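Morning - fe (ii) ion inputs below, output right after.
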Amino acid sequence: MRLSAPVRITVIYLIFGGLWISLSDQVVAWLVVDPESITWLQTVKGWGYILLTTLLLHQLVRQDFTRIEAANQSLEASYDATLRGWARALDLRDRSTEQHTARVAELTVELAQSMGLREPALTHIRRGALLHDIGKMGIPDSILLKPGPLDAEEWAIMREHPGHANEMLAPIDFLKPSLEIPYCHHEKWNGTGYPRGLEREAIPLSARIFAVVDVWDALTSSRPYRGAWPAERALGYLRSQAGQHFDPGVVRAFEALLARRGGATSVANHSE
Ligand SMILES: [Fe+2]
């Protein structure tokens, strides 16, 4: 039977304290006999007790913290594996391009990092990017998988997917900080996006970053109805939409990231 951490620490502390009390006086009596020396040695013994029990408690608590941290990491890994499963399920359902979700999540985190964002924000961004279209789970197949163009009514239903994401994820505590991208990835810098028509900095930064990466990935991937755009053409489109669809600062940061990666083509080398 394994004792719980508080019980184990208490038992070890009691055993140590009991042994100390029963043995230390015998040691003092064996070492010295005159009353003055006994008083002095009792004081040293008292400080020794405090020091040793402090070290003992420190060690025991540290061991348990390490164990708890390992358990948390394993739990986080399970959460992330589950999220990747959800993302994959959605990719399969709407038949979006292979690995699109994983790829945009990776590039979104890289761009966010290049703009100075750090942990834990990057973890929330990664999760949000993986789940960006999770709200499409609430869109009927007849609209999501429709081969032809959508009519006005169907578009209205399709535009509900960020709201569905909000309803799905908001009650999940550990995903609340990751909600910005699923809820706001279709907002536009000039306020013409949806679902809330947010403008400029009112759109969360993570969603502004994601929007650039998502469109870039769509343009530089081949589709059944068109080939992949060359990197320069896609970049030209992003530039033309800076201040319209996109945050101009994010577009500039993205260009700088591409330049550092040795030219746009090294990012746009996928097609499926
Ligand atoms: Fe979307």
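Note: The chain has two domains: 5-68, 94-266.

O.
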